[in-house]
Sequence to fold (203 residues):
Amino acid sequence: MSFPKPFYRWRPHPWHGLSVGPNPPELVHAYIEITPFDAVKYEIDKETGYLRVDRPQRTSSQPPTLYGFVPKTFCGPRVCDLSPHAQVGDQDPLDICVLSERPITRAEVILNCIPIGGLQMIDGGEADDKIIAVLSNDPIWGDVRTIAEIPQTLVERLRHYFLTYKLRPGEPKSTEIYKVFQAEHAHKVIAAAMEDYVEQYGG
Fold:
């Protein structure tokens, strides 16, 4: 009996076992941790690769898009160098938000997506960029290539979510968004995160 190649006998780790994508940085994989219907923030458990409950959201804000990360990326010194206000990279895989016309209601799925821009975010002094992308074969968003082609209301919703999702009563906010960047810079951030990953974990 023949098997397709590559063939995994065991579930690969979503961060380290999946590929970065079919044609990075223009076409990448997104592993989805949170959907727009989740009032709980889930996050990949770095040891096991399973989703862990990070925290119930304290506010009524919910992610306006699918939210996850690009496999085999790491926000280290190269990503930090692209973010002038950052002191270090956040040592996590690169975050990505994906627009889909049809509701995708389950997490732990892999998407092919096209980066169109992003948010240059700093969280407690750490570079924590959020790539904005579209589902590659989406009938509504699939032909979009620049962030100017999507309603700016969606960008504002993403900005609001990331500026408020860690708020705690009586404590100062930890996140700042310094700019919205275009696809060209998104490609640079992805390429830098891929290089940081190789340096940190090997090829």
Summary: The mean pLDDT is 93.
